[in-house]
Amino acid sequence: MADTPSRSPAAAPARRKSGRHRGEGQWAVGHFTPLNANEQVKKDDDGLNVRTRIETIYSRAGFDSIDPSDLRGRMRWWGLYTQRKPGIDGGRTAVLAPEELDDEFFMLRVRVDGGRLTTAQLRVIGEVSQEFARGTADITDRQNIQYHWIRIEDVPEIWRRLEAVGLSTTEACGDTPRVILGSPVAGIAEDEILDGTPAIEEIHRRFIGNPEFSNLPRKFKSAVSGSPLLDVAHEINDVAFVGVRHPEHGPGFDLWVGGGLSTNPRIGVRLGAWVPLEEVADVYGAVIGVFRDYGYRRLRNRARLKFLVADWGAERFRQVLEDEYLGRRLTDGPAPEQPVLRWRDHVGVHRQKDGRFYVGFAPRVGRVDGATLTKIAELAEQHGSGRIRTTAEQKMIVLDVPEEQVPSLVAGLEALDLRVAPSPFRRGTMACTGIEFCKLAITETKARGASLIDELERRLPEFDEPVTININGCPNACARIQVADIGLKGQLVTDERGEQVEGFQVHLGGALGLEAGFGRKVRGLKVTSAELPDYVERVLRRFQAERTEGERFAQ
Ligand code: SF4
Prior knowledge:
Bound molecules: iron/sulfur cluster
Radius of gyration: 23 Å
């Protein structure tokens, strides 16, 4: 039942009327009339259907032929966003109309479920980057790859090449089941509780590109990891399955729902349920069904699952899940244990359970390029078995390296400026797309993050504490600012001459892991972009000078 509840508003069961939620646009209580323009667009036509128009009309007739409701709506269902016109400063982001910000080029997101790639796939990703995306290819903090400068004319050919090697852009964006995060070391890590890969594959098979689930109230983010390192940021996903050992039933997953960041951040809640591997896809289907049917569709800024979970609480959510979607009780289960290590990115050289090694490495703020990706594929073929992973921290990993091959692989990566033993600054700094390409951005992020890393490495060569510095170009949270030690939220700030310039609101002391919590917005503390290295250096030096034995940065 879980994966096939009826989607059509007309066919949805007439469930009880709830006075409290009247007018929230919840299908399950009979509110099918679209209450905003986005809901109307989705009702008019399924976002998945835009693919045919791209292939048969838009790619042939060009950018100007694109229907506006496809351009700024349905094209996301296939991973396409218009990118920001170059040269528009952050001060004008909020005042210009969308069509004034739109460039004729697109960002295209390739979903990499579980972060799993083969070298053959990586070669194609690199080739597409060089041929169609001016060499761009960023690794995102959701394990995806993002291109920029894509022309609509080239999209069908890009799809053909990606799909020929088993990659896709299906539902990489939009109000859909987005990429499923997975532990990048699933199946190989010595300390693994269990391998979630079969569940990710089953979820993908049943729910991605499925019209029953292609009109959700908002995006739906998910994660599955059996790693004790808690390496998929499970607390900030709409649904997450986290590896635990049940005292009677053995390895399985602890079920979390309702996490999410953006402007109203919430840590997900545990439902107290233990889910065996073979039932993960059923439970995923039940949770996404609750979201589709009960999710709030009236206001987009209240549509994520976290708002429903906050209103209902864990107990009621679990009850509805069991009674109306699963038709059975879930097994009670334990919480995950506190991870021993602070870094969760798998960077460095690590022994696998089969005796070979995996080698994780760090570009700067997830920025690579097509030529580099092609060289990484070559190195992985020379030294490993052809398996590559992306991580949820904008890093990459080569798997299956025999011990004697490790030094040569490390040297090859370092020659590409991909650090296997990076400074804490390179390792812990992430940045979103920012003003270079994002229409919502107020500040520059990627280049700023890269230069911040270089500055901190020069100024603080002895600093050896894990520290996370997450840089966002606007109040959204694509780079997870609220859960970083130092979170930087892009906005305009006033400089010493009284002029409005690019800068950041500072949040300090956020974290993920079992001590998960949001950073404190430091009242009134804003820094200009130019002051950023001085400010971060001061914060880190003060910590070094004042820390007590065993204290880590965020405490
Ligand atoms: Fe764009 Fe803001 Fe997201 Fe950065 S955080 S990618 S600027 S929407």
